[in-house]
Amino acid sequence: QVQFVESGGGLVQPGGSLRLSCAQSERTTNHYFMAWFRQPSGKEHELVANINWVGDVTYYPDSVKGRFTISRDNAKKEVYLQMTSLTPEDTAMYYCNTFPLPSHPAWGQGTQVMVSS
C-alpha cells in the first residue's frame, strides 16, 4: 500500500504563499491520478486539486482555482501544491492521496496550514 508523507505547511499571513510537498513510499502505477485534499477542523476531507500521471491534466474547485497549482515529479515520487493568495478559509490540514480515493483510503500525517494575521 502506498504511504504518503506531507510537508511544507506552517503559519502564514493572509495573502501569503506556501509550497506543500508529498513524498510517496512506493512508485505509483502509471494510471494514478494524484490529488491534494484538505480537512478543516471538524469537517470532512475536501478535494483541492488533482493531476494525471503525465501532468498535463489538472482540476481545481472554484474555491482555489487561480490560486493553487498542483504538480508532480514522478522520478522523485513527489507531488507538490503551490498555494498563493492564501486566506483564513484555507486553514486546514492538507493531505495527498491517489484519486479517486480508494474505498478505505490510507492517510498520511498531513501538514497543517494556518492562515492568520
Describe, in plain words, how this protein is organized in 3D.
This protein is mainly beta and 117 residues long. Helix content is 0%, strand content 46%. It is built from no helices and ten strands. It has strands at 4-7, 10-12, 18-24, 33-39, 46-51, 58-59, 68-73, 78-83, 92-99, 111-115. A six-stranded mixed beta sheet has the order 2-10-9-4-5-6, with no helix packed on it. The protein has a four-stranded antiparallel beta sheet with strand order 1-3-8-7, with no helix packed on it. β7 and β8 (78-83) form a beta hairpin. It is globular, with a radius of gyration of 13 Å. The model has no long low-confidence stretch (mean pLDDT 93).
In N-to-C order, the SSE pattern is EEEEEEEEEE
Total beta strands:
10
Bin the strand percentage.
Answer: over 45%
Helix content: under 10%
* Rounded average pLDDT: 93
Side by side, the strands of the main sheet go 2-10-9-4-5-6
Can you tell me the overall shape?
Answer: globular
Question: DSSP helix count?
Answer: 0
Radius of gyration: 13 Å
Give the helices and strands, then pairings:
Blueprint: E1 4-7, E2 10-12, E3 18-24, E4 33-39, E5 46-51, E6 58-59, E7 68-73, E8 78-83, E9 92-99, E10 111-115
Parallel strand pairs: 2-10
Antiparallel strand pairs: 1-3, 3-8, 4-5, 4-9, 5-6, 7-8, 9-10
Concise account of the structure shown:
This protein is mainly beta and 117 residues long. Helices cover 0% and strands 46% of the residues.
